[in-house]
């Protein structure tokens, strides 16, 4: 599992826990973790595409 996927899953759990307990800070932290995971995945995708382009040349 990639770092981004781990962060997204962790964020989802935090957000759900925050929803269940009414903890707004935990909900917010979960959303931030999910966004961080999404960004890490996108950066990783771009890096992979660059590496593939370099290998073709």
Short description:
By secondary structure, the protein is mainly α. It has two helices and no strands.
Biggest sheet record: none
**Overall pLDDT metric:** 93
Domain count: 1
C-alpha Rg, in Å?
15 Å
Structural class, from secondary structure content?
mainly alpha
Strand percentage: under 5%
Number of strands: 0
Q: Which oligomeric state applies?
A: single chain
Overall morphology: rod-shaped
Unreliable stretches covering 5 or more consecutive residues: none
Distance between the termini: 30 Å
Outline the fold blueprint:
Blueprint: H1 3-21, H2 24-56
Can you tell me about this structure?
- The protein has two helices and no strands.
- The protein has helices at 3-21, 24-56.
- With 57 residues, it is mainly α.
- It is rod-shaped and about 55 Å long.
- The longest helix has 33 residues, at 24-56.
């Amino acid at each position: 599992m990639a770092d981004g996927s781990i962060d997204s899953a962790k964020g989802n759990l935090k957000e759900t826990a925050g929803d269940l307990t009414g903890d707004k800070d935990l909900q917010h932290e979960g959303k931030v973790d999910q966004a961080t995971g999404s960004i890490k995945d996108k950066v990783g995708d771009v890096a992979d595409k660059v590496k593939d382009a370099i290998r073709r040349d």
